[in-house]
Every structure is written in structure tokens, then in C-alpha cells.
Specification:
Layout: H1 9-14, H2 21-25, E1 32-34, E2 39-44, E3 56-62, E4 65-70, H3 74-83, E5 87-90, E6 95-101, H4 103-109, E7 119-123, E8 127-135, E9 138-144, H5 148-159
Antiparallel strand pairs: 1-6, 2-4, 2-5, 3-4, 6-9, 7-8, 8-9
Helix pairs in contact: 4-5
Length: about 160
């Protein structure tokens, strides 16, 4: 196996020893987790008729643009969406995904209002991102992969001293 196998969700799922550098950087963190192993597909077109497979979630950004998160193959999801007449782009390697706990922590990272999520906007001092509420007090942030470590460090720093 290559040292870059952590970039492949399928390879990472088949070998539990493979851990991304971002996940290693967040080991032991209580309120921030790396969930980048999801397949991520940018979808453009009329989203109202998108049929989701088990393990998929569509995060709508606008009526005609969204990100499909999948536990399965992003390539298969792209092919299925393209066959349905949508434009679909595999963004798995381009986007890092972090989950964080607590609305207070989220408010320290972005000016986006939790009531208006999902939404696209600046997080962690200007990084473009997509923010969604996963449930309750848990939020997911998608950011450019190359800025994932930076956003994670800002989130950990912002969370210091916050009590849940």
C-alpha cells in the first residue's frame, strides 16, 4: 500500500490502520472530529428530483447547487447523477470535512447563523466553507482540503475554555 492510501475512502474503510493526517492531528480532541472519509460530490442542476441511495445525504446550497455526501463510492454517485441529467463532480479529494460539537464553538468560527444552515460562507477567519447542522448541537464544515489543518487548529483554539 502507498502512503497516500488514506486519500481513498474505499482503501481507508478496508484497512482500519489507515488514518488521515488530519484525523491524527485531532486525536484526543473532544469537540472536533475529522469526517473527511465521506465521498463528496458537487451537484448542479434541478435538485428537487435527486433520488438518494442509502448512506447518502444532499446538502443544498442553492436551489440548483448542492453537495452529495456518501458513505459509498463517489464515482458511482457521479455516474448515477450524470445519467439523471445533472452535472456531478467528485470533490472527495478537494474537500476536508470536520464535525464539531456546540453552537458556541460554531459561533466563534463563523458569522453564519445556525438557524440559516446549511449555508456557504467564511469560517475560521475567512476560509470558504459549507456549514450544516448534523443534528442537535453537532455541525459539519466542508472546507478546501489544503486548509483543513488550519481550520481544525482554529477550531481547537476557539474551543479552549468552552464548557458544554
Amino acid at each position: 500500500m502507498s502512503t497516500l492510501d488514506f486519500l481513498s475512502p474505499q482503501a481507508a474503510a478496508s484497512d482500519v490502520r489507515l488514518v488521515s493526517p488530519l484525523a491524527r492531528a485531532l486525536e484526543g480532541a473532544q469537540s472536533v472530529r475529522d469526517v473527511s472519509s465521506f465521498g463528496k460530490v458537487e451537484v448542479r442542476g434541478v435538485l428537487d428530483g435527486v433520488e438518494l441511495e442509502p448512506g447518502e445525504e444532499l446538502v443544498r446550497i442553492t436551489p440548483s447547487r448542492g453537495v452529495l455526501l456518501t458513505a459509498g463510492s463517489a464515482g458511482a454517485a457521479c455516474a448515477r447523477l450524470r445519467a439523471a441529467g445533472l452535472r456531478a463532480y467528485d470533490m472527495t479529494g478537494a474537500l476536508a470535512a470536520l464535525e464539531l460539537d456546540g453552537e458556541r464553538l460554531l459561533r466563534r468560527l463563523t458569522d453564519l447563523e445556525p438557524e440559516s444552515l446549511p449555508a456557504a460562507g467564511a469560517v475560521a477567519r475567512g476560509v470558504p466553507g459549507i456549514v450544516q447542522r448534523v443534528g442537535g448541537e453537532t455541525f459539519r464544515i466542508l472546507v478546501p482540503q489544503e486548509l483543513g489543518h488550519y481550520v481544525a487548529a482554529v477550531a481547537l483554539d476557539a474551543g479552549e475554555g468552552l464548557a458544554r
